[in-house]
Amino acid sequence: MRPLFFRVLASTQTGAGHLMRSLALAQAAESYDVPSVFLLDAEAKSVAAKRHDWHYKIIDLPSGLADDEEGNWIGAQAKEQGAAAIIFDGYTFAADTIKASRSGHCTLVLMDDGMTHVSQFVDIVVDPAASPKTDSAQQRFCYGPEFRLLRREFAEVSPNPISQRNGIAISLGGSDPKNLTIPLLEAIAKRMPNLPIRVVTGPAYQRLSELEACIATLLNPIQHIHNCQDMSEVWNHAKLAISAAGGSQFELGTCATPSILLIVADNQQEATKQAVKEGWAHSFDCVDRTPLADIANCVQSLLDNDLQVLSDKAKGLYDAEGATRLLKIIAEHQQ
Q1: Prediction pTM value
Q2: What is the CATH number of domain 156-314?
Q3: What is the E.C. number (predicted)?
Q4: Where exactly are the structural domains of the chain?
């Protein structure tokens, strides 16, 4: 297959989730000797450059482009290097950008999540949280859990039994835009001062000095990992995880890690409801307010019970093959 081109958004406001999802597809493509090229603005490039496993080509997006100008530029880059597909991952792409990017036989792919309004302009729409949908004559719909895109590290996970895990892990995404990490850590530490805690902050997290100052005042044994490069190791060694809902919950399901999922965006509701229904996760709606005391109570209650029961409920429900499945569909569309 010819190269894959990615136009992805990442920032301190949107976090790194879109970039990590596209990275999963690029890793799957690499296993088939298909190169990947990322078209990134300065902020997204900064996030990507902080990963030790990043070795994909980046082309800098010119600043100040109008929507159609950006599309024309994307299309020209893809045509020049013979791209097989352009993958758009982000919630704010304009219709004019998508339409203007179309060039020759290049397949347009949109990571949708139910948050965009431009899906009618692409060839393949991907939404792992949506119910399966029959393809039309013009479009392929990669809907449903089989199209969850997880990085290569999760394909090699064998879930540890709870007896071999220790403490809890807290990770609220690449940027934690609602700034929940510090107050959540304080609420849990106040209730359980001896509980071992791993706190993970993403590459776009902006309150590192405040977090370190907070940790210094707490009695708990706390390990802080910034810009973690191996989340499978973190999730697979935690008795219980507290995570922002979204892509991370699929990682947690793959690791069979009992979890408390914090909903911080409306488009996370359906997938989170499914995880709760499956029996391995609890959830809290934090879109408008964060019930810190209730979350801390839930942590204590879960730790007082048999977490192996919750872990067992997740086993076999998740896998890390979604990127490979999507890659095959992109290849089929090129035939």
Answers
A1: 0.87
A2: 3.40.50.2000
A3: 3.6.1.57
A4: 4-151+320-334, 156-314
